[in-house]
Design a protein that fits this description.
By secondary structure, the protein is α/β, with parallel strands linked by helices. It has eleven helices and nine strands. Strands 1-9-6-7-8 form a five-stranded parallel beta sheet, with helices on both faces. The protein has a four-stranded parallel beta sheet with strand order 4-3-2-5. The longest helix has 16 residues, at 27-42. The chain is globular, with a radius of gyration of 19 Å. The mean pLDDT is 94. Bound molecules: pyridoxal-5'-phosphate. Pyridoxal-5'-phosphate (PLP) binds next to helix 2, helix 3, strand 6, helix 8 and helix 11.
């Protein structure tokens, strides 16, 4: 990636474009879902059950793939006050014939599966695709990144991509930019699935504090970045990732000659 700022700081910056994989099933969602769908097909399950928030990229990508592969899908959505018409993604998912179940936040926290869903012979995919298998699906991504990098930056939702990269690229320092206030949960996930933090850094100082409000500065950054680099980013994950990265560069976080990779995890919909 070319930028006067990178030249001035004498760093080399590369970007891994997983946003180009597919317009809807983009980035890390494709990598994670592929493994689950292979199992679903091999075991000839009757259907799939999964969880997510009303704006989750995970449920949108999964719904699209299940529609295409004609696999029955039940999605358990956080928020009993919502309906299939609460936003354009839900109504699109609904129009694909996917079964939507809206449950209270409390029931969601316990990952209760509503009684009306017959779970027999169904494959359950955890929220955001986070599991040992989700982490293992990052092996493919890691092997595509042949060059050694001093730092690799990724956005963090469940930490699947972060932990997978740390697991398979032990020689690089993997930096996770947190989007949500879930540092404790991510640290727990790291402890459960990755033996140590030796090559991991979590940045939680960039988390947006203005919930529900539009952050015009961040949105403006996304627009300007696209204009300059011809690469789309969205505010929640990849926009925050890049804005935070630029800030670290400005603050001289890196040494001259550092080689840095930005993982564009997709998510443009
Ligand atoms: C889901 C998602 C993430 C979060 O990835 P995890 O592996 O769950 O941490 C990051 N970026 C985009 C664009 C996503 O859709």
């Amino acid at each position: 990636m070319e930028d006067e700022l990178f030249e001035q700081k004498k760093i080399q910056v590369f970007i891994k474009r997983d946003d180009l994989i597919h317009p809807i099933v983009s980035g890390n969602k494709w990598r994670k879902l592929k493994e689950y769908l292979l199992i679903a097909q091999k075991e000839q399950v009757k259907g799939i059950i999964s969880f997510g928030g009303a704006y989750s990229n995970h449920i949108y990508a999964l719904a699209f793939v299940c529609k295409e592969l004609e696999i029955p899908l039940h999605l358990i959505i956080r928020g009993e006050e919502l309906s299939a018409h609460s936003n354009q993604y839900l109504s699109e998912i609904n129009s694909w014939g996917i079964h939507l179940h809206f449950i209270s936040r409390e029931a969601y926290r316990n990952k209760n599966i509503p009684n009306e869903i017959n779970q027999i012979d169904h494959l359950i995919i955890p929220e955001g695709g986070f599991s040992k298998m989700g982490i293992e699906s990052m092996k493919g991504l890691s092997s595509e990144l042949k060059d050694p990098f001093d730092y690799i930056f990724t956005a963090v939702g469940t930490g699947t991509s972060l932990i997978g990269l740390a697991q398979y690229l032990p020689k690089s320092i993997i930096c996770g930019i947190l989007s949500l206030s879930n540092k404790l949960e991510i640290e727990k996930n790291i402890n459960d699935f990755h033996s140590n933090m030796a090559n991991l850094i979590l940045f939680d100082q960039f988390i947006e504090k203005k919930y529900g409000k539009k952050n015009t500065e961040l949105e403006e950054f996304c627009i300007q970045f696209k204009k300059k680099h011809k690469i789309s980013i969205e505010p929640i994950y990849t926009g925050l990732l890049l804005k935070s990265f630029y800030q670290l560069v400005e603050e001289n976080y890196f040494q001259p000659n550092n080689k840095i990779l930005i993982y564009h995890s997709g998510g443009i919909k």
